[in-house]
Amino acid sequence: FIGGVLGTCYRVDPNFGAGLANFMVAHGVVELLCIFIAAGAGMSIGYAILVPGDLTRAEALKKRGVEAARIVIGIALFLFVAGVIEGFISPSDLPVPAKIATGVLTGTLMLLYLGFVGLKPESEIAAN
After folding, report:
1. How many distinct structural domains can be found in the chain?
2. Comparing 72 with 15, which gets the higher pLDDT?
């Protein structure tokens, strides 16, 4: 849906579309990553209903629901960060390269954080 709106804005008035991209570039990376991750959490709940495996549907739904809830709580924190950026940096008069740098930096930090969250120390892995 958002892609259709953006495409329409660019087609109707390229200057407006450029301004919209200028507005979105600082917070859009984190916000879109959050949307994709939340969608994945929702799909895992749906998958638990469709393919419960050896568990009953209720057990599979409970297991996946708890996992999805943990993911969504974590994503809410990232959405807060995106909201702060959207409220203060995106509408500001900062030059576009600074906004791009903000988007790249926050997106990179988010991906680095997500890459290390939940990892167990090697000593704990070796003990199991």
Report:
1. 1
2. 72
